[in-house]
């Protein structure tokens, strides 16, 4: 598909598209038109094509838009593109279509950012949450809160000039009540937004275990592809390998490690070092034990080190004779799953436990409706701080002009989240994250 947007779009189409009866696309009504694409200068035929004609303002960018849908193939798309350039178009910058949509008031900033997330979305759930944002639920909440805030602020500002004390205390009571309501709502927005990020960026998952217990094999099984190296020599996974696995719609960002253990081997040590680092940032842990061997001191240490983290303990190689014992007392409330990667048994149960435990009390399907990035989180946190100060000041009976300043700052912060107070630098920063053609 080749998309042209702007006031010249119709005339450009007329120069490169031959419709039945030599009609002009720019004079047609909105809709799909069948025609032949021609070279604007030599007039030779390029391809048949379906042209989507969407005069502004009812288009993605709110400008006149033509989309040429051609048969696949890079060669052909390129010749259509160069025909369009010859006919007077210029190449779009990355994200320019979305930027124009924003500048023309079609979408707000958080919706524009959601388009970026949509492009990057890694799993179904994550793309669903990006879609929700595109639809503007998040912006709607922010806008509603801004309205509440501006009404509250108006009340406070009006009251500042009143000398009577009881009028002032009514205003304070309202600041406390409304402020607390807003705080609850924003904090939930932040929580959901962060969960949305987890859904998009994945749950940092570390696979731990002594060499040769089957960590790499497990990673491969979870990814259903042969990415990590599997060998019979202990300690061959020298580096940390990281991949995304979509398990039950939840993205797990899985790290395979060299195993945490004491070693004199320098190369091995590098891997071990990274394992420790990985464990520090882990959001979920899979401890792999070899059920064919008695529980070793190292195993026990691993179980102790990972206590308290969301985790599943895997007893691998369950196709072999069972020699492991004493895991249960060290497992706490973690799930213990018997697995045989060789026989292909237990993987489903493991995946089930992973989803259950990684998301326990955390991610729900609803959480996918909001997703915030670092910029938005920082701003929202700033709004929380402002509101908390306002509420505290009101409770302490501070003068109203101090409260008004906090409310104003909260209002501005919320505006920045959806780009209503965004500066040019910020806009460029955001839109340069787009890929071409969006
Ligand atoms: P790592 O060092 O922990 O990454 O272990 P690997 O995944 O490299 O596996 C070590 C060896 O154990 C390989 O020869 C695997 O084929 C073997 N292995 C992995 N899972 C099983 C299993 O469930 N049963 C048996 N019998 N062997 C397994
Ligand atoms: Zn390995």
UniProtKB/TrEMBL annotation:
Localization: Cytoplasm
UniProt: K(+) binding residues: 212, 231, 233, 236
Alphabetized GO MF terms: GTP binding; GTPase activity; metal ion binding
Any single Gene Ontology cellular-component annotation: cytosol
Residues that bind (6S)-5-formyl-5,6,7,8-tetrahydrofolate: 18, 67, 106, 438
Pfam families: MMR_HSR1, MnmE_helical, TrmE_N
Statement: the UniProt record of this protein carries the keyword tRNA processing: yes
Enzyme class: hydrolase
Main location: cytoplasm
Keywords of the record: Cytoplasm, GTP-binding, Hydrolase, Magnesium, Metal-binding, Nucleotide-binding, Potassium, tRNA processing
Annotated TrmE-type G domain residues: 202-359
Cofactor binding: number and manner: Binds 1 potassium ion per subunit.
Entry keyword Nucleotide-binding: yes
Cofactor: K(+)
Signal peptide: none
Highest taxon of source: Bacteria
Gene Ontology annotations of biological process type: tRNA methylation; tRNA wobble uridine modification
Record function comment: Exhibits a very high intrinsic GTPase hydrolysis rate. Involved in the addition of a carboxymethylaminomethyl (cmnm) group at the wobble position (U34) of certain tRNAs, forming tRNA-cmnm(5)s(2)U34.
Family, per entry: Belongs to the TRAFAC class TrmE-Era-EngA-EngB-Septin-like GTPase superfamily. TrmE GTPase family.
Subunit (UniProt): Homodimer. Heterotetramer of two MnmE and two MnmG subunits.
Matches recorded under NCBIfam families: mnmE_trmE_thdF (TIGR00450), PRK05291.1-3 (NF003661), small_GTP (TIGR00231)
Name this protein carries in UniProt: tRNA modification GTPase MnmE
């Amino acid at each position: 598909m080749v998309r042209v947007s702007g006031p010249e779009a119709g005339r450009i189409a007329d120069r490169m598209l031959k419709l039945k009866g030599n009609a002009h696309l720019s004079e047609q009504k909105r809709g799909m038109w069948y025609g032949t694409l021609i070279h604007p200068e030599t007039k030779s035929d390029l391809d048949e094509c379906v042209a989507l004609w969407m005069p502004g303002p009812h288009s993605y960018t709110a400008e006149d838009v033509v989309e040429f849908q051609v048969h696949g193939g890079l060669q052909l798309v390129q010749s259509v593109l160069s025909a369009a350039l010859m006919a007077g178009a210029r190449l779009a910058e990355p994200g320019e279509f979305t930027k124009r949509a924003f500048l023309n008031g079609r979408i707000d900033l958080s919706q524009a950012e959601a388009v970026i997330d949509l492009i990057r979305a890694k799993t179904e759930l994550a793309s669903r949450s990006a879609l929700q944002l595109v639809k503007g639920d998040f912006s709607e909440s922010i806008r509603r809160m801004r309205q509440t805030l501006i009404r509250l602020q108006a009340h406070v500002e009006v009251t500042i000039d009143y000398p009577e004390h009881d009028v002032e205390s009514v205003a304070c009571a309202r600041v406390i009540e409304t402020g607390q309501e807003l705080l609850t709502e924003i904090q939930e927005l932040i929580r959901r937004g962060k969960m949305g990020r987890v859904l998009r960026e994945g749950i940092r998952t570390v696979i731990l275990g002594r060499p040769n217990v089957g960590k790499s094999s497990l990673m491969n099984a979870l990814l259903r592809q042969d990415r990590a190296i599997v060998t019979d020599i202990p300690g061959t996974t020298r580096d940390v390998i990281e991949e995304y696995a979509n398990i039950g719609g939840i993205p797990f960002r899985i790290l395979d490690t060299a195993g945490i253990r004491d070693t004199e081997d320098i190369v091995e040590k590098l891997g071990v070092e990274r394992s420790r680092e990985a464990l520090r940032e882990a959001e979920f842990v899979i401890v792999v034990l070899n059920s064919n061997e008695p529980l070793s001191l190292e195993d026990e240490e691993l179980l102790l080190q990972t206590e308290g983290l969301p985790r599943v303990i895997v007893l691998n190689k369950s196709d072999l004779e069972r020699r492991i014992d004493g895991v249960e007392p060290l497992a706490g409330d973690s799930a213990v799953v018997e697995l045989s990667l060789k026989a292909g048994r237990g993987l489903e149960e493991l995946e089930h436990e992973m989803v259950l435990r990684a998301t326990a009390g955390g991610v729900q399907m609803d959480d996918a409706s909001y997703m915030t990035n670092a910029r938005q989180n920082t701003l929202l946190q700033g709004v929380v701080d402002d509101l908390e100060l306002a509420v505290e000041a009101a409770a302490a009976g501070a003068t109203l002009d101090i409260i008004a300043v906090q409310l104003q700052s909260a209002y501005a912060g919320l505006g920045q989240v959806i780009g209503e107070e965004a500066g040019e630098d910020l806009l460029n920063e955001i839109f340069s994250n787009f890929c071409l053609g969006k």
